[in-house]
């Protein structure tokens, strides 16, 4: 059976361990080789030093000087040289004449023959150190002169065979190998611990798997159209894709910082750090309406943190608000159609009964009431979008039996703010006012006042105030009035309950205006927008 040997398929931990083993083997082998070479060099140096010491000791011995000048130097010096060689651990001690004729030698048959080697430096008074092959084989030898005063009367050569030096080094090999094995064992244990840690940190994945995971996962994170955030158990942001950075306007160094230090709205910050699941929850930032979903991030049963997704619902929410206004206007028009039919039948019946004067008075009175409100709105408001909102809300209020009043002298100029923002601000404020008085048992009135307010150092403000005779805000509710989710109603549109005032606050802040709330009795919401609000929005 053929088994494919492909290191690329190994896990990162296995590859790391294999590379470390290879490096350790090379290091230990190089260390052993270096130790062996060093031992050989040290052995050679020790052999030279020992041979030099023995040669100089022999040359300085008076008995040697006396013997070389005697009639038979060999008889005296041969036993002495053999004894010195045995005692000093050298292989030969050769004493010779200045002409290099041997007087002593470990092999008596070589006595009387010429010394094989160089003696010129010794004859000049120096020392010869060399590796040379003589009668006993390759050796390291030292040749020094023997002096009788200033005269050189003999030469002494002391040598150690090269094989003996090698044997000495080989005797050290077990110790060297034992040290190498100990180093390898310690290194192997360290590498095993490192590999175990790497395997745990990489979850046993291979290099290709990690690369593919990073490349594809990173590409997916940056390609998805939803914002993606991962927050750990300590409330620190661990991941934010491009869309999340854009939606939340996060700083470049947001990842790695606590979520509470990122300047997000308090409700959104609480949702991201409370560790609870959230499903299709609306949050309002300074510029957007976002849908938040959040759940736990698990790995093999271990909770790592929480992952949240964000979807931009700003345009959809604005369109939904406009749709709600249009739906309300449609319902009001449908009701008015029924009411008009009833009134028309009344007029026809009055005519048939011969009460033409009463029929004319009844028709004229109804026409004047409707026309007066329309004329007042058209005369007071130059912005067509705001006029349409006011007329639609007036019709809805009339249907609910609510007195809808446009304050005398009201005036709202054209192009104070973009039409969408005007619809958002006025529509939500009027919706809240109408809802507030709908359940009231006393006076049911909604008042709209629009005018210009002079400023000392800049363009005048355009002021829009919406008042109602409802129960007003609850105690302490003014500070929470524009927080996402705040509502005085028992029920609201699915997913949109309490978001209207937050959208108003968002639009006002974006336009550089201010928003105030007063009451009870009733509630009055006052919006002040700079006259250059439309230009501010466009820039």
From TrEMBL:
Domain of life, source organism: Bacteria
Record domain Histidine kinase: where: 425-533
Record's catalysed reaction(s): ATP + protein L-histidine = ADP + protein N-phospho-L-histidine
InterPro entries for this protein: HATPase_C_sf, HATPase_dom, His_kinase_dom, PAS, PAS-like_dom_sf, PAS_fold, sCache_3, Sensor-like_sf
Keyword Nucleus on entry: no
Record key words, sorted: ATP-binding, Cell membrane, Kinase, Membrane, Nucleotide-binding, Phosphoprotein, Transferase, Transmembrane, Transmembrane helix, Two-component regulatory system
Top EC class, one word: transferase
Documented EC number(s): 2.7.13.3
Cell compartment(s), UniProt: Cell membrane
UniProt record, GO biological process: regulation of DNA-templated transcription
Gene Ontology terms, MF aspect: ATP binding; phosphorelay sensor kinase activity
Membrane topology of the entry: Multi-pass membrane protein
Pfam families (UniProt xref): HATPase_c (PF02518), PAS (PF00989), sCache_3_2 (PF17203)
GO CC annotations, alphabetized: plasma membrane
PROSITE patterns: HIS_KIN (PS50109)
Predominant location category: membrane
Metal-binding is among the record's keywords: no
Transmembrane segments: 17-37, 176-195
SUPFAM superfamilies: ATPase domain of HSP90 chaperone/DNA topoisomerase II/histidine kinase, PYP-like sensor domain (PAS domain), Sensory domain-like, Sporulation response regulatory protein Spo0B
PANTHER family registered for this protein in UniProt: SENSOR HISTIDINE KINASE DCUS, TWO-COMPONENT HISTIDINE KINASE
Protein name according to UniProt: histidine kinase
Native source species: Intrasporangium oryzae NRRL B-24470
């Amino acid at each position: 059976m053929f088994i494919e040997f492909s290191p690329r398929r190994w896990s990162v931990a296995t590859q790391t361990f294999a590379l470390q083993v290879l490096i350790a083997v090379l290091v230990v082998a190089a260390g052993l080789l270096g130790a062996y070479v060093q031992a050989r060099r040290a052995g050679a140096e020790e052999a030279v030093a020992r041979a030099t010491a023995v040669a100089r000791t022999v040359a300085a011995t008076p008995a040697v000087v006396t013997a070389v000048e005697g009639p038979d130097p060999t008889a005296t010096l041969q036993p002495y040289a053999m004894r010195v060689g045995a005692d000093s651990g050298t292989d030969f001690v050769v004493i010779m004449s200045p002409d290099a004729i041997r007087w002593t030698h470990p092999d008596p048959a070589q006595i009387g023959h010429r010394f094989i080697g160089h003696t010129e430096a010794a004859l000049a008074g120096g020392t010869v150190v060399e590796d040379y092959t003589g009668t006993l084989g390759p050796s390291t030898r030292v040749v020094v002169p023997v002096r009788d005063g200033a005269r050189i009367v003999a030469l002494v050569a002391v040598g150690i065979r090269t094989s003996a030096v090698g044997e000495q080094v080989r005797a050290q090999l077990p110790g060297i190998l034992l040290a190498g094995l100990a180093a390898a064992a310690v290194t192997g244990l360290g590498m095993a611990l490192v590999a175990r840690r790497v395997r745990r940190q990489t979850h046993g994945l291979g290099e290709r798997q990690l690369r593919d995971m990073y490349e594809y996962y990173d590409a997916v994170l940056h390609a998805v159209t939803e914002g993606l955030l991962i927050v750990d158990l300590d409330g620190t942001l661990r991941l934010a894709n491009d869309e999340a950075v854009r939606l939340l306007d996060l700083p470049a160094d947001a990842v790695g910082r606590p979520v509470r230090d990122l300047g997000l709205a308090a409700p959104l910050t609480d949702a991201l750090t409370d560790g609870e699941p959230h499903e299709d929850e609306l949050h309002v930032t300074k510029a957007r309406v976002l849908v938040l979903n959040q759940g736990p991030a698990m790995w093999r049963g271990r909770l790592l943190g929480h992952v949240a997704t964000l979807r931009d619902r700003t345009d959809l929410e604005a369109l939904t608000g406009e749709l709600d206004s249009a739906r309300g206007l449609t319902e009001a028009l449908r009701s008015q159609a029924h009411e008009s039919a009833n009134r028309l039948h009344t007029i026809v019946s009055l005519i048939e009964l011969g009460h033409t004067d009463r029929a004319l008075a009844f028709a004229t009175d109804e026409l004047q009431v409707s026309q007066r409100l329309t004329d007042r709105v058209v005369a007071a408001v130059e912005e067509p979008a705001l006029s349409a909102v006011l007329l639609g809300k007036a019709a809805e209020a009339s249907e609910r039996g609510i007195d809808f009043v446009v304050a005398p002298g009201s005036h709202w100029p054209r192009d104070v703010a973009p039409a969408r923002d005007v619809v958002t601000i006025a529509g939500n404020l009027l919706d809240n006012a109408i809802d507030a008085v709908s359940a009231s048992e006393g006076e049911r009135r909604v008042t709209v006042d629009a005018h210009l307010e002079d400023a000392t150092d800049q363009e005048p403000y355009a002021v829009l105030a919406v008042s109602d005779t409802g129960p007003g805000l609850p105690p302490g509710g003014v500070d929470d009035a524009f927080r996402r989710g705040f509502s005085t109603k028992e029920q609201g549109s699915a997913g949109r309950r309490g978001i209207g005032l937050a959208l108003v606050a968002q639009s006002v802040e974006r336009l550089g205006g201010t928003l105030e709330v007063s009451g009870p009795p009733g509630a009055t919401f006052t919006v002040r927008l700079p006259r250059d609000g439309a230009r501010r929005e466009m820039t």
